[in-house]
């Protein structure tokens, strides 16, 4: 009787693991579906560049989404393999990554109501918060991750680094567009001031993620890419003060990453 009960509990546990991992895969693939649905059915197009807002990167730079989604799908495929079912780290990433991938679809749904809709901010808070939880759990599980196959380990670090790097900065781009939609000016003393505050907040959040991720080079690369893109738009629009501030933001991201990685190396942390 007890043997049968034990077997049943084990089977139920395995089923829960499979269902959770499968959900990650479905939601990761769903990012493609939601993107296509947005392109076909949304009454509004996503705008970019200085013509729309001084700190929104130029349109071509948003092509990074293709890399982000491809990397997230690769991770989702790798983590669902039966051979890696016994993995505490992968299990602990199921919930936050499910929220991230579902959040992408929710953001597009909110953006279809208008890119300046406050609803987009609520979704971004969910996405960025889920990324913070995911990186916290990754950092706590580095001992296990060190024993993974290189393809799994690299895919996790790359996918999480570039996804978190881009979206954590895109959140503040979204803040700027929503503020602009409420009537906040882009020019003048107040226009410059509030946008500088947004840039400062973005740099601060980037430093938090650099610390959470243990100095992820992939995070720093994607976050810097976003800030450089915003800087390009600011420069093209003649917003020199904003462009300089964004350059300082890039220096802060890179500098904090170098410091965190140096401290980890000094302590002998892998």
From TrEMBL:
Instruction: Give coiled-coil spans as residue ranges.
Output: none
Record key words, sorted: Membrane, Transmembrane, Transmembrane helix
Q: Mind telling me which residue stretches traverse the membrane in this protein?
A: 18-41, 61-81, 93-113, 119-135, 156-173, 193-212, 217-233, 239-263
Q: What domain of life is recorded for the organism? A: Bacteria
Its name, as the record gives it, is Tryptophan-rich sensory protein
């Amino acid at each position: 009787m007890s043997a049968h009960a034990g077997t049943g509990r084990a089977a139920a546990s395995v089923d829960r693991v499979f269902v959770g991992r499968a959900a990650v895969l479905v939601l990761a693939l769903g990012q493609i579906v939601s993107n296509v649905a947005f392109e076909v059915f949304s009454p509004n197009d996503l705008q970019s560049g200085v013509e729309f807002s001084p700190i929104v990167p130029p349109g071509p730079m948003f092509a990074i989404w293709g890399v982000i989604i491809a990397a997230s799908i690769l991770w989702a495929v790798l983590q669902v393999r039966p051979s890696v079912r016994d993995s505490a780290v992968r299990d602990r990433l199921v919930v936050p990554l499910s929220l991230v991938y579902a959040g992408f679809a929710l953001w597009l749904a909110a953006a279809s109501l208008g890119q300046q809709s406050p609803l987009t901010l609520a979704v971004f808070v969910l996405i960025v918060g889920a990324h913070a939880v995911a990186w916290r759990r990754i950092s706590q599980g580095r001992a296990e991750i060190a024993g993974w196959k290189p393809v799994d380990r690299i895919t996790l670090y790359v996918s999480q680094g570039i996804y978190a790097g881009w979206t954590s900065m895109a959140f503040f781009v979204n803040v700027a567009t929503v503020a602009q939609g409420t009537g906040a000016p882009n020019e003048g003393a107040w226009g410059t001031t509030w946008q500088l505050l947004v840039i400062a907040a973005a740099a601060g959040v980037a430093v938090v993620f650099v610390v959470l991720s243990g100095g992820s080079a992939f995070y720093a690369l994607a976050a810097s890419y976003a800030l450089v893109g915003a800087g390009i738009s600011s420069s093209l629009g003649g917003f020199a003060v904003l462009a300089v501030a964004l350059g300082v933001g890039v220096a802060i991201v890179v500098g904090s990453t170098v410091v965190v990685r140096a401290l980890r190396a000094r302590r002998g942390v892998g």
